[in-house]
Give the backbone structure.
Amino acid sequence: MKTYSFEKLIVWQKSRNLAVIINKVTKDFPKDEIFGMISQMRRCSISIASNVAEGSGRHMAKDKARFTEIAYSSALELINQLIISLDLEYVSEKNYLSIRNEIEEITFMLDSLHKSQLKGLEKV
């Protein structure tokens, strides 16, 4: 079986794991949030890993950087939703801090990846 380049990226691996964590945590949310917060948080977390994967298939550095930027934005959106979930007492303080730390690590890696992707564009 072929291994694609994005599968080797630690940021993709961590984002994939985050999507699984979010899916599990949101199972305990109130059922009336199935089309609201649950759906939004799951789509958002999947978007991070998906955009890293999609960007890896682009040939132009500018295109790769754009998808990394979208992944970063999805991570920020997920932090916002996580904060609101804490406010609504859908997640415990412990889960909040654990997930927040995961997201912060991912955003740091995405920022570094984005900067490296843009580095080649500065010379043009």
Observations:
- The helical segments are 10-26, 37-56, 61-87, 93-119.
- The CA atoms of residues 58 and 64 lie 6 Å apart.
- The chain is about 75% helix and 0% strand.
- The first helix runs from residue 10 to 26.
